[in-house]
Amino acid sequence: MLNKLTINFLISALILSCFTNSIWAKDEQTINIEQQKLENKRVKIRRQDWLDAAIYSNLGVVHQSREELGQALADFNRAIEINPNLLEAYINRGLIYARLEQWNKAFKDFDRAIAIKSEYSKSYIYRGYIYALQNKFDLAFEDLEKAIELDRQNARDYYVRSRIYSLKKDWNQALESINQAIEIEPDYVHNYIVRGHLYSDHFDDLDKAEADFNQAVAIAPDSSDVNLARGIFYTQQEQWKLALKDLNRAIKLAPKNPEAYFSRGNVFALQQKWNKAEQDYEQAARLNPNYPELQASIDSLAQQQASNNSNNDLDWQDINQSSEYNTKGLTHALKQEFSEALEDFDRALALNPDNAGAYFNRSNIYLEKFQWQLALEDLNRAIEIDSRISKRAYFNRAGIYNQRGQWDKAIADYNQAIAINSNYSPAYYHRGIINLRQKNWLKAIADLEQVIELQPDNAQAYFNCGFGYMKLRQWSDAKTKYDRGIALDPNDGKAYFNRATVLSNLGNQRQSKADLEKAQAIFLDKGDQANYQRTKKHLMQQQP
Questions:
Q1: 527 SS3 class
Q2: Cystine design at 97: which of 81, 105, 258, 432 (Cβ 3.0–4.6 Å)?
């Protein structure tokens, strides 16, 4: 028989059970509502994250278009951090890594892009082109064929395939591919420029080449690059009037394009209009001091001017013929036809042994062939004939002395180059490097600060100037230089390594370690095992 206490307990338990079941039912309904609210909130946050990722990705594209590669990389990194499946960010970051020649990172990004969306043909196109740049043509064409299989009507795939065949020097296949691109997309202007170059440079069909350049201009008459391309073609055919018309228009359309001024300078030089040529070369140098072919043209200009200024008692007919051969040599040199140029300069000197410009010109051919002693002999003779021949004569001779470790002679020639032109930044730069080697820190800093004033976008000047300040233990000044240099060139492992030392001395161990890790990654990607191991050792020493 149940006692009263037990009965009360059971009744209480029953009541509690009923009440609890009601609460549980109510709580379950509430939980479902709250879970839905939470999921909606998560979706909203996820959508905002995706939006933020897209914004960073778009910012990266803007910085990429402005050649601000360091900032562009930071934007794409942030976009991928927020949204690890953002296809466009991987592709654009991969393209930057390719430009910086960080091939492993580029391949990883394109591999990831393909994993995200395997049917997206552009990922294969870009990865294939990078393979081609490394001469891995089988892998390149494998990717190209996959891209074409995915989208047979995409003309750009055939355009890129043509470019890859050109890298392989298979001109017939290059022409066939660009023809296919034109058939699919007849209004894409660059198709005609590529085919025009193929016809003119490799098939010797100048009529078809001219027709293609004309078609490109007809499609895009207000494109500076298109007018420039046809202007260069006319220059190669020595049609000066037509060349100048196109190059003038190219400059009008894009007044900050150094290649346009450089190309027009070549036309003026070939017409022996030295002052106009010099003005255009100087403008190209102001716009881009590192323009790859500019210095050779400035050399050739100075050489030709010097040949006209030579003063001797030779027959004027011989002098004129010597000048003509020098001009022909200049034409061949600008086309990088060095054997033909060398023959012309030899003839020029046979007719006029006092032609300083021809000696100067021939010295550059010897430099191209790494025949240092012959180059030095010609430079000595050119300077002997005309001591004010050109700042470049002293600069080139200083380079030979520099290579031989004859520092005093090199500095003397850099001094002469600067005396001729006080704004000649390459002479300051190389004199500064010699001063660094000789541990003349203050002189080195003075020279490199001058370079920075003349060329504020010269990353190496900042790096080397920072090194000088570092040796003087002026850590804040060193950090300022390395910060600016790395902003200009985020792909220099030694710069990160040295800045790590600077940061460590400033007490910022965390950032110092981050810079060492960045340096290590760059060295590994470039296959620089010596510096990779050196950096790895420093990182191990930083471990607590």
A1: coil
A2: 105
